[in-house]
Design a protein that fits this description.
By secondary structure, the chain is an alpha/beta fold. It contains ten helices and six strands.
Length: about 220
């Protein structure tokens, strides 16, 4: 099938957010005098993941998440919650510096961009994602970027995908690593979907599965 465009999730699909996050949080710990222990990193990850789950269920906005995750982290380790706003601002600036790519990302986009329009569809913080997309190595391939904070709605809500459908029309294909927000969300909005996973699990009904970006490119060329 020839698609009007391909929508790629950003984090852990095209860009390695785990490396970016580890570097940014480590810098934040050093800046604010927090021990860079595994326990503190785990406490941060727990607070962050809980907040993103709340965003995906519509219980929390991305704007509120920025400080909520820092406050939850500080409360969890008995830290000074008076630092919440300053730490949140510092973290956002550091996260925006991340340029780490997933294996095969540039090669896959090089192939696919000759045939399809490429767009980013990301649950994320607008300032962070736009720095990483438009000032990084992906920029030359990307036609548009859809970021949940700017849209006011997050994947898997079908409303997240409505602007892409309006801009490109159907059929569209979503490629992402999250079976719920990326894949089930896209399918529910009427898109095709490819689940990028090495888990060996069966994809959600109606979706295809690929183990690598190289395999995604092979499937779509």
């Amino acid at each position: 099938m020839t698609y009007k465009a391909l929508l790629f999730d950003l984090d852990m699909t095209l860009m390695d957010f785990r490396r970016t996050e580890a570097e940014a949080v480590g810098s934040m710990f050093r800046r604010f005098g927090i021990a860079p222990s595994e326990a503190n990193f785990a406490a941060y990850r727990g607070a962050n993941e809980a907040c993103w789950r709340a965003v995906e269920t519509g219980e929390l906005t991305v704007g509120a998440l920025k400080e909520r995750r820092i406050r939850l982290f500080l409360e969890g380790i008995g830290g000074d919650t008076g630092l919440t706003a300053a730490m949140a601002d510092f973290e956002i600036a550091e996260l925006g510096k991340g340029r780490h790519l997933m294996p095969g990302a540039l090669e896959a986009l090089e192939r696919l961009s000759g045939r399809y329009k490429i767009a980013i569809a990301s649950n994320g913080i607008a300032d962070v994602q736009r720095e990483r997309i438009w000032k990084g190595p992906l920029a030359r391939f990307v036609d548009r970027a859809y970021v949940s904070e700017e849209l006011g709605v997050a994947k898997p809500d079908a409303a997240f995908f409505a602007p892409a459908i309006r801009d490109y029309g159907l059929p569209l294909c979503m490629i992402g690593d999250n079976a719920d927000s990326d894949i089930r969300g896209a399918l529910g909005a009427g898109l095709d979907a490819i689940w990028l996973t090495q888990s060996g699990m069966e994809p959600p009904a109606g979706a295809r599965r690929a183990a690598s970006l190289e395999e995604v490119a092979e499937m779509l060329m």
